[in-house]
Amino acid sequence: MEIDEEKIDDVVLALLYLTLHDGGRAWKSFDWDAMNRLHEKGLIENPVGKAKSVLLTVDGLKESERLFQTFFTKDS
Fold first, then answer.
1. How many structural domains does the chain have?
2. What CATH number is attached to the domain comprising 60?
3. Is 73 helix (H, G, I), strand (E, B) or coil?
4. H or E segment and range at residue 25
C-alpha cells in the first residue's frame, strides 16, 4: 500500500484546527513526520520542543480552518 503523505498532512492540519486554543496554538499529538512536513511547508512553527502545543502560522491557521470545514462539516 502506498501512503499519500499530502492527504495525511491535510487531515493532520484539519485536526489541529479542532484543538485550537490561545489564539492559534494547537495540541501537537500527531505523527512527528507529518508535523515536520507541515513545518517545512510554513504552516506551523517549529514543532520540536518541550511544549505540548504548536503555533500555527497565519497561512496555517487559514488552511487549517478550510480543511476542517472540507473534511468535517455537514453540507447545508
1. 1
2. 1.10.10
3. coil
4. strand 25-27
> 20-75: per-residue pLDDT in tens?
999 899 998 899 999 999 999 999 999 998 899 999 999 999 999 999 999 999 97
Q: Which long-range contacts (CB under 8 A, 24 or more apart) does 63-69 make?
A: 63/13, 64/13, 64/14, 64/16, 64/17, 64/20, 64/26, 65/17, 67/10, 67/11, 67/13, 67/14, 67/17, 68/14, 68/15, 68/17, 68/18
Q: How far apart are CA 48 and CA 8, in angstroms?
A: 19
The residue to which cell 497561512 is assigned: 59
Q: Model pTM?
A: 0.89
Domain around 13: 5-72
Contact 53, 23 (CB under 8 A): no
